[in-house]
Amino acid sequence: MITSQDVHAAATRIAGKVIRTPVVHSDAISRITGADVWLKLDTLQVTGAFKERGAANRLALLSAEERAAGVVAMSAGNHAQAVARHAALLGIRAVIVMPAFTPSTKVTRTARWGAEVVLHGTTLAEAAAHAHNLADDQGLVFVHPYDDDAVIAGQGTLALELIEDVPELDTLAIPVGGGGLVAGAALAAQGAGRPIVTYGVEVESYAAMAQELAGAPVSVGGATVAEGIAVRDIGRKPLEIVRQLVKQVLTVPERAIESAIALLAEEAKIVAEGAGATGVAALLTYPELFRGRKVGVPVCGANIDNRALANVLQRVMVRDGRLMRLILDIPDRPGVLGEISTRIGAAGANIIEVSHHRLFTSPSVQAARLEVMFEARDATHSDAVVAALQEHYAVTRL
């Protein structure tokens, strides 16, 4: 098993090739969670994610013969761009196999670095098998996204920098996909010279690491905004390190990750993808574990689709009561719409959307049904707006 010394060696090796990203204290998240929270912003890497660290270290260790042959990797996201970028910087041929369903933006960004992108298969497993076949047929070096000692050591440099920049840290909350980042972080924590507790964090629908540690059958699947950690087959090397050095792998619900994305965007002014926000989701889900502790959390990826980000923010606003949708049964006479908009405005809310129905849903030809969506400050304010409307109309919340 590799050690913390390998992480230190990786840090020296990749210095100048990846950004030493800043660590910021988050007053807002600290107040909400009761912990003293420090965020490591690997969203600021050139490709927008921490994966550059492992790729840079792995490629730097290639022999002259391996560099001449080139590399192949399988990924639907951040690892693909990381390998493509650092291969380009070294002048190495890179072949990236991506599943056919990979969003075109990720394909374009990967190809932009000069990589040869091959779309193959409908699953990550099929893409991985094809990548291994290409490695065998063409003599390419397969660069695994997480089950590789050099990749693990490279990812661990994130936690190493975090620990160096905030000497008082006593806890780490690290997202878990295949396990490379949490394994590297645990090694960095072990070599810190002081007690630092490392927690891993998975989304509930893809809790493969937690299931493996518990000796349970791996059962994962379903849609998740944290697609970057939606992994079934975790790495054997990371698993062994996690068994020895990680205190616990926590699981968080999908809603907590959405709340963490919104919290980072609204309060910390940081854009994070689902996987990148999972560490913050752990603080929201398990406040009793982290309260009073000095916690380092990597925000390890920013590559979220704009539409997905907008949807998440609106979904959280609905849950928080800041967006409210109502149905009002109203008399079908001139001026009623104006009355309703005036009452909502007078209550201090902002109308977002209105839909007026006469033919299909109204209870009478003398009545109409109005659907209204409005924005309020918070749930209490929404309740006040609804109460003001209920004094004059039949109101149903949706």
Automatic annotation (TrEMBL):
It is an enzyme of class 4 (lyase). Gene3D superfamilies: 3.30.70.260, 3.40.50.1100. This is Threonine ammonia-lyase. It comes from the Bacteria. PROSITE patterns: ACT (PS51671). GO terms for molecular function: threonine deaminase activity. Residues 325-398 form the ACT domain. Its cofactor is pyridoxal 5'-phosphate. InterPro entries: ACT-like_dom_sf, ACT_dom, ACT_ThrD-II-like, Ser/Thr_Dehydratase, TrpB-like_PALP, TrpB-like_PALP_sf. It comes from Sphingomonas molluscorum. Its EC number is 4.3.1.19. The keyword Calcium does not apply. Pfam families: ACT, PALP. Keywords: Lyase, Pyridoxal phosphate.
